[in-house]
Design goal:
This protein is an alpha/beta fold and 287 residues long. The protein is built from seven helices and 14 strands.
Length: 287
């Protein structure tokens, strides 16, 4: 029976007794040596097998590289107009019979781009025995006189000294100094791009177009003057609103064209007007 005792307040409490904790003690299992050796052996076998696979793959790759299966026997070239395929192949220095894996494609591309005609070259492998070379050439739009004659491309870049076999059938740009372009390259590039824009404008015109122009001269103040192919007449464009000025000239150019050899200049710098200057010798002879 429970021992019920009354406390001072007259109520009863139940007697309590502490119980010792009932924990199970873990017992260490003896080491299973056979299982440990079996597991270690499996790790060694797997590691050795992996190493053999890596070595085998490396040997297989070496055999493939050394085999005739991947030796270059064809180089295809596209995108070239000014250079011949033979010239580009010589620039690439790719030899038939060499392993395709021995080629450094980026280095080959940079070597081809060392030629001034080449703006960009892309080289790629076509397995198993072919290499493709795609080139983007620069296209000259004018010749610029910097002491020597250079080609100017559509991006306003001066890229090549003219040789005896190069075409001279382009308008000549004058008024620039080589040392100025080198000392202020950004300013010079902007000026040349403005002239390239003028050339593009002239190529799209019907009456007074690029075929009528022999020279584009930049004045010291930045103004532009054209010289006509027929008669060498000055066409003063100045600095701004070039397209609008050319529109004015085109409206009356059919009447002026037969008289170009008699004219000293055509001035388009006065708004909404075309001012024509006649050479003095023609004035005196006419009088």
């Amino acid at each position: 029976m429970r021992d019920l005792k009354a406390n001072s307040s007259g109520t009863f409490r139940t007697g309590t007794k502490k119980v010792k904790g009932n924990r199970r003690k873990k017992q260490q299992k003896p080491l299973n040596l056979r299982k440990f050796l079996h597991r270690s052996l499996r790790i060694v076998v797997f590691g050795f097998s992996g190493a053999l696979i890596v070595v085998g793959v490396a040997l297989l790759l070496q055999l493939l590289v050394a085999s005739d299966l991947f030796r270059i026997d064809e180089v295809r070239i596209d995108g070239a107009d000014y250079l011949t395929n033979a010239q580009i192949l010589a620039l690439s220095d790719i030899q038939t019979g060499v392993s395709t894996f021995a080629l450094d494609l980026e280095l080959i591309g940079r070597k081809i781009e060392e030629n001034p005609w080449i703006a960009h070259a892309q080289v790629e492998r076509i397995f198993p025995r072919q290499v493709n070379i795609h080139v983007e050439e620069r296209h000259p739009v004018a010749i610029i006189n910097l002491g020597y004659l250079y080609y100017l491309d559509g991006e306003g870049e001066v890229f090549k000294v003219l040789g005896r076999d190069d075409s001279f059938d382009f308008p000549v740009i004058t008024g620039f100094k080589r040392h100025q372009l080198l000392s202020e390259p950004e300013k010079g590039r902007d000026q040349l791009r403005r002239i390239v824009g003028l050339i593009e404008n002239l190529t799209q015109r019907a009456n007074f177009n690029l075929t009528q122009v022999s020279e584009i001269h930049q004045q010291q103040d930045g103004g532009l003057t054209l010289f006509t192919l027929n008669g060498g007449c000055k066409v003063k464009l100045g600095v701004g609103e070039l397209s609008e000025k050319l529109n004015r000239l085109e409206r009356i150019y059919a009447r002026l064209k037969p008289r170009l050899e008699m004219l000293e200049y055509i001035d388009l710098n006065v708004a909404k007007r075309v001012i024509v200057g006649i050479e003095r010798q023609h004035r005196s002879s006419a009088s």
